[in-house]
Amino acid sequence: MTFLPDQWRPQPNMLAEKTLLITGAGDGIGKAAALSFARHGAEVLLLGRTEAKLEAVYDTIIAEGGAVPGIIPTDLAKVSHDDLIALAGELANSIPKLDGLLHNASILGDRKPLAQTSAALWHQIMQVNVNAAFMLTQALLPMLEQAPLASVVFTSSGVGRQGRAFWGGYAVSKFATEGLMQVLADELGETSNIRVNSLNPGAVNTAMRRTAYPAEPPQTNPSPEALMQHWLFLMSDDSRNINGEALSAQS
Ligand code: NAP
């Protein structure tokens, strides 16, 4: 069941005046979201680990006449709390507020039984998918508080709502993502301008999906672009009353 209101359609410039930070903005769903937000008027801050991919997204936005994006090359597997505090400080010197934060970057890890899962890989998955999202959110809260209305979206997964064999650390990291969303939403919902939700994209034709299901024909699943109205809605003020919800982009 979609959570979009009946007949809801993104309006052309509905994200004008908003600054939105997207993690994992160089590929897959994050790239599609960054381009889509920019096409609807937002200034986007592109965070990701492969600078060349971020530059390609930057070039597309400029070529399309969008607001000049920011590029934040950051490897979330290696980033420290201090690095993210410093990043937030630099951002605060150049922009007055942050209206949205899309936690999208994640790694899949190995599809293996827990009995064979390496502890090092487990830690890496938790670092990228959970710890970095916590630290980045905490560092950016003061800037989110400066926005009239702000939206934080965590990216979940079906295996973060119902555990499934062989999804290992990835599934557990997505349960943690849901927990992070719930705690933060409960803390901020009544007392701040910030709403916090999670979004399960469902099966989407990206590199991650193709890795997880190598035998599946890629066209089985929708492209990220085909689903973008859900991300647009959550970053627009039309979702101002939704907080603490575990949402899905596909039924
Ligand atoms: P993807 O195509 O693999 O893209 C993931 C993005 O995250 C890439 O831009 C990647 O950067 C970035 N990233 C990975 N590790 C990073 C790190 N250490 N530091 C910074 N950035 C990093 O995956 P996707 O399918 O678009 O997935 C996006 C989100 O949707 C994820 O949270 C995923 O769990 C979730 N999801 C996807 C599906 C699906 O069917 N696709 C289903 C359920 C949930 P590089 O390009 O530089 O590697």
Report on this structure.
- This protein has a single domain, classed as Rossmann fold (3-Layer(aba) Sandwich), CATH 3.40.50.720.
- The model has no long low-confidence stretch (mean pLDDT 97).
- With 251 residues, the protein is α/β, with parallel strands linked by helices.
- 40% of the residues lie in helices and 14% in strands.
- Strand 2, helix 2 and strand 3 form a beta-alpha-beta unit.
- The chain binds NADP nicotinamide-adenine-dinucleotide phosphate.
- The site of NADP nicotinamide-adenine-dinucleotide phosphate has 28 residues, from helix 1 and helix 6.
Which features does this protein show?
single chain; 251 residues; alpha/beta; Rossmann fold; seven-stranded parallel beta sheet; 7 helices; 40% helix; binds NADP nicotinamide-adenine-dinucleotide phosphate
As a percent range, the share of helical residues equals 40-55%
Number of helices: 7
- Which strands sit side by side, in order, in the main sheet? 3-2-1-4-5-6-7
- CATH C-level: Alpha Beta
Average pLDDT level = 97
Number of separate strands: 7
- Domains counted in the coordinates: how many? 1
SS class = alpha/beta
Please give the CATH architecture: 3-Layer(aba) Sandwich
Q: pLDDT under 50 segments (min length 5)?
A: none
CATH superfamily: NAD(P)-binding Rossmann-like Domain
Task: Determine the N-to-C terminus distance.
Answer: 5 Å
The profile of the biggest β sheet is: 7 strands, parallel
Oligomer kind: single chain
Strand-residue proportion: 5-15%
- What's the gyration radius in Å? 17 Å
Bound molecules: NADP nicotinamide-adenine-dinucleotide phosphate
The shape is globular
CATH-defined topology: Rossmann fold
Order of helices and strands: EHEHEHEHEHEHHE
